[in-house]
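Sequence in, structure out.
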Amino acid sequence: MAVVQGDERDKAAAASGRRSRGHPLLRGWKRDQYTHGMHPAQMEALRAMCGALIPSLPAEVDGHGRGDPPGGKDLDRFYNASAADSIIPDEVAELMVTRCIREAVVLAWVVLWVLSTRVGTLLLCGRLCVSGEFPYVRKFSDMPLAQREAALQRWNKVRWMFPLRIAFAIVKILCHYVFYAMVNENSENPYWKAIGYNVEEPAREERTESPPRSRPLDVGVVETRLLNDNALLRSLVGRGVTVKPSDDDACHTVQCDAVIVGSGCGGGVAAAVLASAGYKVVVVEKGDYFTAEDYSSIEGPSMERLFERGGVFCTSNVTTMIFTGATVGGGSAVNWSACIRTPETVTREWAVEHGLPVFGSPGYAEAMDTVCARLGLTDRCREEGFQNKVVRRGCEALGLKADAVPRNSSEGHFCGSCNFGCPTGDKRGTDTTWLVDAVSRGAVILTGCKAQRFLFETNSYNNRSKKKCVGLLATCSGDGGIVKKLIRIEAKVSIAACGALMTPPLLRNSGLKNRHIGRNLHLHPVSMAWGYFPPENKVITGKCYEGGIITSMHRVTDRTIVETPALGPGAFAAMVPWESGRDMKERMRRYARTAHAFALVRDRGDGFVDGEGRVRFTPSREDVEELRHGLRQVLRILVAAGAAEVGTHRSDGLRMRGR
């Protein structure tokens, strides 16, 4: 009985064609209906904004000589396309309402209402909306493209119009992300060929020809999203979980020794250690379970299903984007493969300055050795990808040291899409290591199951503490987030391992009042720069999305390092500066040969987790200065590597000619 559920799931997925390119949830972009609730007048204004951000244009050579001459139907389709067409504005509205923080949504909502009127448009656009014909003042959607574009350029640059800048930033980010990340029923985007992007199928015959195999965690995983009430009970009992009789049809009560919230780096290791010691462990994971055969490497649906808030997670001031995993394996399933041991300078600081001697003990070093061994870390890379070649070549030209970065994959692993789950199965996260150890020793993993609060009762055995934790209350939800069932998990030990962003809200929902909950958040902020290497440059070959994501690193100071990111076309377009519709399309035409590198700082300042999906974070002055210093070094490295043009992500689009 333990494997029946996984077999049935695989057969259904194979029948629907999953093996051709991943699981259906990770290869398509489809909504049955839109729930954003925007008024038609607001949608008209939003459609006009999207059309100005990504307009239909003739394919001609850029006036600054940065573009390529037109040619071919793919380029013609790309330049003729407008974000005002099709369902893109509705997708933007849906993401805005469901992913952005409440204050940002209200701000954008108000701006769109104002722009839907002539008086409001006059207030925000000035003389740009004035016409020589009656009624003399146009609302935003009636303005010519050139005037709408000029208005957006003004909002992007004028500092005193901060609310408009925020609204512009939200629409700009979401519009470009949807335009380049959205795929059709065939997992294709019509503009990828024009920008030199493609998603390759891993060279493995079993994805198309072999029968479905049992998955590594099938013996212990219970996919609650796929099960009705009776099937859920049978799966729990079949995996050795004690289910208590209950008069409440809406809630099941189960018993175990330890319940762990989260299946990532912390939860996965804890589950393996406790299960190996003979304890009955239940892991609660709100995300779904996917394997190497499921991963599609397609940006849009992969971000939606594998990341917190669908990958659209920003701080309250909309200045910092945060990527955090929300699937079985947590961040280890979607990280960039870099596995760097805690530096001795840091462990010494924690042990001496912060009074935490455990980090300076042999036991901590042995623990790191154990983790590295289980993940199969390798210190070398047989062949580096385009971006890491750029960093290494630039460092060598400047006489700087470029260190090899240990990875939890083989030396020959040449995968540029591990951030969407490794489709080759070479990368080893907790979902293929520690959790496998855990389920082989009787642990159970509940997927699609979200922790609501820990359960407390009066502690009659210890007068020093009034309450003790006796378990967890969780909800199982189906598609659309509709709650199907409550599960009360009674346990002797309860562990919160859902990360720095999700643990504080869980603790507060549980009634804990400690003022430090959610504080002292450190994000290791980054600042990016880019360099364009024309295809004629044969010294550094490849494309920005090919090869290992992080294989080279330069240490600028003891608090700042330089590394390379993974940016699909949607993330790339969302992050790079927008100056005009044509300039943005020319930037995207150069996507494949634009290398990005970033300066990462170990921040001194701290942030605050204000609630679920709400993070307040502003780097300190010292951190900002460190970022500036690191960014200058990144630009030097890119120029030294031979970039024809370099720039940063400043909103004004500042760029410089290279060699």
